[in-house]
Amino acid sequence: MSAGPSGAGNDEHGKSVEETEELFNMGVACIKTGALDMALDIFAQVLRSRIARYGELAPECASSYCRYGAVLLYQAQDSADVFGSNLDTDVHQDVEDKENDKTAKDPTPPASSGAVDADAELAAALAAEEDGQEGEEIEATDLEVSWENLDCARAIWEKDPQTNANELASVHVLLGDVAQENEAFEDSLTDYQQALLYQKMAGYEEGDRRTAEVYFKRVMALQFLEKPEEALLDVDNAKRILEKRLEIIKKDASGSGGGSNEDAAAEAQDVEAILEDLKEKKVELEALAEEKRAMAEAVRGALSKMTQQQGAQGDNSLAPAGNKSNITSPVKDLGVVGRGTKRIKLEPTAVEPKKEEAAAGEAEAEAEGKGGGDVKTEAKVEANVATKRNLDDMMGGGDGNGGNGGGETTIGF
After folding, report:
1. What does the DSSP assignment read for 104-147?
2. DSSP string of 231-283?
3. Backbone angles phi, psi at 225, to 5 degrees
4. How far apart are CA 148 and CA 382, in angstroms?
5. Which residue, 28, 70, 276, 323, shows the most beta carbons closer than 10 Å to its own?
6. From the CB of residue 115, how many other CB atoms can be counted at a distance below 10 Å?
7. pLDDT digits (tens, 9 = 90+) for 33-91
8. Computed over its alpha carbons, how large is the radius of gyration of the chain?
9. How far apart are CA 78 and CA 137, in angstroms?
10. Among the listed residues 128, 53, 64, 55, the one whose alpha carbon sits nearest the alpha carbon of residue 98
């Protein structure tokens, strides 16, 4: 099992249950005073002893896993500044000592050329880079081991969630903190939400500051995720809880005297300071939310304008010059323009006159072949008369025997 300190399966000291419990309380006191190195050593001993006595997944080991993982988390938080860079000077000092030892054991021979100096500088730069990466890996490993121990505690306590609701709320808060240190903000939100559920299951009071703390941790995660609207809701939740807590403090202080009044006054001052911080945070988040809305409006406006321009270009492309306009206005093919005169199609009936003209041409040729000039003239006249009669018949004015053609047509002309 990877969780726990190295050699956790050995009970070398042979401590009794009472001695182990005393060591555990001493470790808790070291955490409160900030002596994290000492606390880490103490909880390592406690965890070894309890694993050897009860087993790795025994309920008696859950609190030791939790405390050991918490101390590793606190150390990782203390070793990083606000920008996340490593501030552990011991690591850098160890790197310098190693470099000095290498120089003493294997001194660099005097360079005979500039190329040798360049190679030496390049090698030194690569070595420094490797040492820096090693330091970063040490910090990442601490957080990973912290998560493993905290998750072991969670798995043990979840076997009986009703009984261990308070412990589960605490360990989920710590797991959320580890996720935040690793910049896994979505995971941290999940753990904080679980912590709130277990706090409710454990029966936390409405004005419990631990609940307000969880809401504020959610605010930070949501701000990193650029969700100011949701963060504002959690700011209001934290503010509501702290105002309730302040009301409870003042009420308790009015009914008691002595030193408790001083303690209540100190806590009330602390809560009021936190409420002021929440007000500033709310103003900051409101500005971020307004900026986000303005940006969204600008993007929507730009997209709408772009869509309108594309629509205008599309309309122009659908109306080209020439006969293509008939595609968009097919009614014009019906001959509406010109008072309906285009509805008369003479093309089919024009075929017959052509046939008659061809017949007249043949008669003329035959007449010419026979030498009869008068026959040629008569053939032309008969052809023209036949053409006229066909038109009159088509217009409805003929009487079948070549009438005078003065009757009305069937279409009203």
Report:
1. HHSPPPPPSSHHHHHHHHHHHHHHHHHHHHHHHHHHHHHHHHHH
2. HHHHHHHHHHHHHHHHHHHHHHHHT--THHHHHHHHHHHHHHHHHHHHHHHHH
3. -85, 5
4. 116
5. 70
6. 9
7. 999 999 999 999 999 999 999 999 999 999 999 999 999 999 999 887 444 444 443 43
8. 49
9. 16
10. 128
C-alpha to C-alpha distance for 98 and 101, rounded to whole angstroms:
5
CA–CA dist 130, 114 (Å, integer): 25
pLDDT reported for residue 227: 94
Spatial CA neighbour of 187 closest among 221, 152, 236, 141: 221
- The pair phi, psi for residue 313, each rounded to 5°, is -65, -35
Query: Which SS3 state, helix, strand or coil, does residue 221 take?
Result: helix
List, for residues 151-207, the tens digit of each pLDDT value: 999 999 999 999 999 999 999 999 999 999 999 999 999 999 999 999 999 999 999
pLDDT of residue 111: 44
Structure tokens at 7: 């050699």
Largest CA distance in the chain: 154
Q: Which region, left, alpha or beta, applies to residue 380 given φ > 0 means left and ψ of -120 to 50 means alpha?
A: alpha
Q: What is the pLDDT of residues 312-325, one digit of tens each?
A: 776 555 555 554 44
DSSP type of residue 409? P
In angstroms, what CA-CA distances link 303 with 23, 289, 293, 308, 315?
66, 21, 15, 9, 18
Whole-model pTM above 0.85? no
Q: Is 195 helix (H, G, I), strand (E, B) or coil?
A: helix
- Taking the C-alpha atoms of residue 220 and residue 21, their distance in angstroms, rounded to an integer, is 36
Question: Could you give the CA distance from residue 252 to residue 123 in angstroms, rounded to a whole number?
Answer: 68
Closest alpha carbon to 244 in 198, 206, 274: 206
Q: In this structure, how many other beta carbons lie within 10 angstroms of the beta carbon of residue 225?
A: 14
